[in-house]
Design brief:
Layout lengths: L5 H14 L2 H4 L10 H8 L6 H14 L4 E5 L11 H5 L5 E3 L9 E3 L8 E4 L2 E2 L25 E7 L14 E6 L9 E11 L4 E13 L5 E22 L4 E4 L21 E4 L3 E22 L5 E23 L3 H4 L3 E2 L3 E3 L2 E8 L8 E9 L4 E14 L3 E26 L6 E5 L7 E3 L13 E30 L2 E25 L11 H4 E7 L9 E6 L1 H9 L12 E2 L3 E2 L5 E18 L2 E20 L4 E21 L4 E12 L10 E4 L4 E4 L7 E15 L2 E13 L2 E10 L2 E11 L3 E13 L4 E14 L10 E10 L3 E10 L2 E6 L2 E5 L2 E11 L4 E8 L5 E8 L4 E8 L3 E9 L1
Parallel strand pairs: 4-7, 34-38
Antiparallel strand pairs: 1-6, 2-3, 4-5, 6-7, 8-9, 8-49, 9-10, 10-13, 10-48, 11-12, 13-14, 14-18, 14-19, 15-17, 16-17, 17-21, 18-20, 19-20, 20-23, 21-22, 23-24, 24-27, 24-28, 24-29, 25-26, 29-30, 30-31, 31-32, 32-35, 33-34, 35-36, 36-39, 37-38, 39-40, 40-41, 41-42, 42-45, 43-44, 44-47, 45-46, ...
Helix pairs in contact: 3-4
Length: about 900
């Protein structure tokens, strides 16, 4: 049943914000009630430093009935890392992605970010992206979140009936601070300067928090603000259409046999692997992130509390991507004049590509420049809650709305060199398959061109995304005495979620290879720039710097195309039907849960029922008309969490339950997102069904002291309807796409693994912590994306009266990314070292410093052919980052 909540929610929240009516707060809203024993234990701890933070996190884990790990702030404004995802990487079973040098997505127990759920104070948070090529998922982008606004993070790995469904690997709950929990007139300020050794820029950041409450502690208000600037530079050796196979023939002559490049005479060929393109890419971005978090609380009586929470974070993300692409593979765009090369162990290790072939027609050197000025992403939460505590019962209610909005601008320009031009030559190298590169020494004009390249491809597009959820929830608790059952909890929730994407585009038409098209490269050159590639295999590359303004003027100066236009023209701005879609979901759920406790045991058992109705709307390209499809499914999700205390310090833990993961919005759409310039794209599938997992956990935890423990947990997941991606070639809307990724429900899949964790705090201020997770896929024809068999984290710290220091190490082994038409794409193993130090000048002033990626690691891909042959693929280099700053508290 469709439920439209937005009007009511806006009316209630507007009454509170505009009219200041605290009585309106009593209409609805609440957060999940936490276990009383856990709260009592947490309240005993004063969080002042590393050791106390670890103790508080351990208490959350120890006294929870479910399988939970936690991170707590050392103090207000002192979260362990400058990025929340980086802190999550210290938790057993968690690995993160850092494609742009900063933690973005969280993988839990082998389940990629889109299969996990992130909640803020127990409720959904709208998602958004600044990157036009990022397909919409349910994954929260942690780049948006200032850690100063977070008090603690809980990661639920087992199912629990009163927590929203949707996290197949786990559920991350971000908890913000509340004013009645803080001292009156609490002030915290933090200033930082960040230096990136790759961009060689220093950028400022600031955060501040003020919390007030009246003398009777019945009303409180808190506001936290943050501002961060960051200059991003990323150098990449980029391989296109990885693991593409060709029959390479040393003696094949395009001039005499241009029609059959893959069928030379028998005995005249050698099997070889070569990418169709190798790029020297430079990504530059200016980020400005602004956040605000406002919390109001009113507790007129001991029994009644109400609160209003507003959160907003926006990131402006202007960026430019430049990519000089050499195309050594003659079979994609046509035959080039390829000289004799070298093949070793099935890999083409050396190949000279020359212009001037009279039979050739392919452009074999491309220079792409993409300007994304004005790109932004924003997340907003407006939430109203109340709690009422009776003599033997409690009622909580909550109503709210959240949205994520993204605007991605994309002015794309592409210069092409014509294959018949004898001045355009390069050499491709890939010794041992480990170091792909292209040497442009035989094309010295690249830094100062005239007419060797022409501007043959230009388009301007805007992509707008909107992810909105409205929710209303009520929970009721009853204290009972039914044998070991001491509490019954019931709840109901209604959610209405909508994902929408609209793309608008204007494109240059009738450009042609070998002609001037919109102009020669020399007409737009404004100097040159160099990509050093000190840490990738490409080697230093210098190329001319195009004048963006001149290209915009030339493009927008073109006349508008009309029917039958044969000369250069520009299409009108119009909606890209193929890439525009809307997904609507109405989700209704109810649950019942019983908490129990006896002699040395405790836990909870529950049942959650959820019904989901979906509508996927898009465009039927074949018949040129709007199209939509409805879907409906329901899930019964039981859960059991059981803890047995063998001794006061040693406990056993068992959990069993079911969880689901809904398809990502784009995956469920009719849309296609194409990138013709790289012959790649993705296509949705409205027929997808949700994934459902039956999962089990069994663990033991030995608490050696207040901040020391040893633990081990075994886990197993059996997944029905696992959604996998496959990449193949195809023609979409008249455009041939060499690497088109699509989504399908597969058969059953499964994984199992073990988490080991150790933490010890010495009496002299030193401490050590380490965790290791082994995850193995046990069933399924397609590998799980982002699943690393081995994930290891270690931390060493020292904490004295004024000085603290921490050294962190993280490792994840090789992991699968996606299937390719002739093989598979893998992520290579990743290592990162980070260090932090701080010094308290006074009780109120602390200086600190932090160094990320100490050993200057790159992020590499591996392409594995069907026969097991491997070559190094794309290599991303983000460099090191160094922070210095100070915090002030009053």
């Amino acid at each position: 049943m469709a439920i439209n909540l937005r009007g009511a929610i806006r009316a209630i929240n507007s009454a509170v914000l505009v009219g200041g009516s605290l009585s309106a707060m009593a209409l609805s809203g609440a957060v999940f009630a936490a276990d009383e024993d856990k709260l009592e234990r947490i309240e005993e701890i004063e969080v002042l430093g590393i050791r106390q933070s670890l103790q508080k996190s351990m208490d959350i884990k120890r006294f929870s009935s479910s399988v939970v790990d936690a991170i707590t702030s050392e103090d207000i404004g002192k979260f362990p890392d400058k990025n929340v995802a980086e802190s999550l990487a210290r938790i057993p079973g968690v690995a993160i992605s850092r494609d742009f040098g900063e933690g973005q997505g969280v993988t839990i127990r082998g389940m990629e970010p889109s299969r996990n759920l992130t909640l803020v104070n127990g409720q959904a948070v709208g998602t958004s992206q600044w990157f036009v090529l990022a397909d919409a998922t349910r994954n929260f982008n942690y780049e948006l979140l200032s850690p100063e606004m977070i008090g603690s993070v809980e990661v639920y790995k087992s199912a629990q009936a009163d927590i929203d469904e949707g996290g197949l690997g786990g559920t991350v709950i971000l908890n913000t601070r509340k004013p009645l929990d803080l001292d009156a007139n609490t002030i915290n300020l933090s200033v930082d300067a960040q230096y990136s050794d790759l961009s060689e820029e220093t950028d400022p950041s600031f955060s501040g928090l003020y919390s007030w409450k009246n003398e009777s502690e019945t009303f409180g208000a808190m506001i936290a603000v943050s501002r961060q600037e960051r200059t991003v530079r990323r150098e990449t050796t980029e391989l296109f259409t990885p693991a593409y196979f060709t029959q390479y023939d040393r003696d094949w002559d395009a001039s005499t046999n241009p029609a059959t490049p893959f069928n030379p005479p028998a005995g005249e060929t050698e099997q070889g692997m070569v990418p169709w393109g190798v790029g020297s890419a430079l990504f530059e971005q200016e980020r400005e992130r602004t956040g605000v978090d406002i919390n109001l609380q009113w507790a007129p009586t001991d029994a009644f509390t109400t609160g209003l929470h507003y959160f907003n974070s926006e990131m402006e993300a202007d960026n430019t991507n430049s990519n000089l692409i050499g195309i050594p593979f003659r079979g994609v765009f046509g035959p080039n004049n390829v000289s004799e090369g070298t093949v070793e162990n099935g890999v083409i290790t050396e190949l000279a590509v020359d212009g001037g072939d009279p039979a050739g027609w392919a452009n074999h050197v491309a220079f792409d420049n993409i300007y994304r000025d004005g790109s932004t992403m924003e997340t907003e939460i407006l939430d109203l809650e109340f709690d009422f505590q009776g003599d033997s019962y409690a009622i909580s209610a909550q109503v709210g709305t959240t949205s994520g909005k993204g605007v991605n601008n994309d002015f794309f320009t592409e210069f092409f060199a014509y294959s018949q031009d004898p001045r355009v030559n390069f050499d491709f190298y890939n010794p041992g398959g480990d170091a792909p590169s292209i040497d442009y020494s035989r094309s010295p004009w690249l830094s100062n061109p005239t007419d060797q390249m022409a501007l043959t491809g230009v388009f301007d597009q805007t992509n707008k995304t909107d992810d909105t959820e409205d929710y209303a929830q009520v929970d009721v608790n009853f204290d009972v005495a039914l044998g070991p059952v001491n509490e019954l909890k019931f709840g109901a929730k209604a959610r209405s979620r909508s994902f929408e994407q609209e793309r608008y585009k204007s494109e240059m038409m009738n450009g042609a290879p070998g002609t001037e098209s919109l102009g020669w490269a020399g007409d737009f050159a404004a100097g040159s720039f160099t990509v050093d590639h000190d840490e990738t295999s490409m080697g230093s590359t210098t190329v001319f710097l195009p004048n963006e303004g001149a290209m915009r003027d030339a493009f927008f100066g073109l006349s508008t195309c009309t029917s039958g236009s044969t000369t250069l023209c520009r299409t009108k701005y119009s909606i890209e039907r193929a890439s525009s879609y809307e997904i609507d979901e109405d989700i209704n759920s109810v649950y019942a849960m019983a908490k129990f406790e006896g002699n040395r045991f405790r836990g909870n058992v529950g049942l959650r029922y959820v019904e989901t109705d979906t509508t996927s709307s898009g465009w039927d390209l074949a018949n040129d008309k709007a199209i939509s499809a409805d879907g409906s499914y329901d899930n019964v999700l039981p859960s059991l969490n059981f803890v047995y205390d063998l001794t006061d310090d040693l406990l056993l833990r068992f959990a069993a339950g079911k969880s689901i993961s809904r398809p990502a919005p784009f995956a469920l759409s009719y849309a296609v997102n194409l990138t013709p310039e790289t012959s790649s794209g993705t296509a949705g599938n409205p027929a997808l069904e949700p994934e459902e997992a039956t999962q089990f956990e069994f663990g033991a935890e030995w608490y050696l002291s207040d901040a020391s423990l040893l633990s081990a947990t075994m886990f197993k997941k059996d997944i029905e309807g696992y959604i996998y991606t496959t990449t193949k070639s195809g023609t979409i809307n008249g455009t041939y796409i060499n690497a088109l990724t699509t989504f399908e429900n597969g058969d059953n899949a499964g994984l199992e693994g073990v988490e080991l964790s150790a933490q010890y705090s010495f009496d002299n201020g030193f401490g050590l912590g380490a965790n290791y997770t082994y995850t193995n896929q046990t069933e399924g024809d397609v590998a799980f994306p982002m699943l690393s068999e081995d994930v290891f984290n270690a931390t060493a710290y020292y904490e004295g009266n004024n000085f603290t220091a921490r050294l962190n190490y993280s490792y994840r082994s090789e992991f699968f990314k996606t299937l390719q038409e002739n093989g598979e794409l893998l992520g290579d193993e990743q290592v990162q070292w980070d260090a932090q130090i701080s010094y308290a000048i006074t009780d109120n002033i602390t200086l600190r410093a932090e160094l990320l990626n100490i050993t200057d690691e790159t992020i590499d891909d591996i392409y594995r052919a069907g026969n097991g042959q491997e070559v190094t693929g794309t290599q991303i280099y983000n460099g090191r980052r160094f922070f210095v700053g100070a915090s002030f508290k009053f």
